[in-house]
């Protein structure tokens, strides 16, 4: 379940349930953040996690689906740009891929962390 894409509607509904029920933090478990889910459960006797759940429900609703996926989808970016021979891409293919990746980062479609992670993967494939 951790590697499946997360549904914004389900996350929002679970957050809303946390506002009105004593069981809070289910949306955190669903989104792959179990430590925060436990914190919410431990603080369930206070209003803090209920208020936080309300804020997060609104935040999930205000995000578009691509923003939501970039924040909560644990799957790495997949670049199916090239067939590899001997599991090593050519230098020109790697350079083109890194340029495309940089463009995605500049457009805000890839976070800095995702950019660095993918860049290192491609450079490691070269060696």
UniProtKB/TrEMBL annotation:
Bilayer disposition of the protein: Multi-pass membrane protein
Protein name: TM2 domain-containing protein
Pfam family name, one: TM2
UniProt-annotated location(s): Membrane
Membrane-spanning residues: 35-62
Organism listed in the record: Merismopedia glauca CCAP 1448/3
Location (main, coarse): membrane
A GO CC term attached to the entry: membrane
Limits of the TM2 domain: 5-57
Protein keywords: Membrane, Transmembrane, Transmembrane helix
Record-linked InterPro entries: TM2
């Amino acid at each position: 379940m951790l590697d499946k894409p997360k549904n914004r509607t389900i996350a929002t509904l679970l957050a809303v349930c946390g506002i009105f029920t004593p069981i809070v933090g289910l949306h955190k478990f669903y989104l792959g953040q179990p430590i925060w889910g436990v914190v919410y459960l431990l603080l369930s006797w206070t209003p803090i996690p209920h208020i936080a759940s309300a804020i997060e429900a609104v935040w999930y609703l205000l995000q578009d689906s691509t923003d939501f996926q970039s924040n909560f989808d644990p799957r790495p970016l997949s670049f199916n740009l090239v067939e590899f021979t001997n599991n090593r891409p050519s230098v020109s293919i790697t350079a083109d891929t890194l340029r495309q990746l940089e463009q995605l980062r500049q457009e805000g479609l890839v976070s800095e962390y995702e950019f660095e992670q993918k860049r290192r993967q491609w450079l490691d494939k070269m060696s």
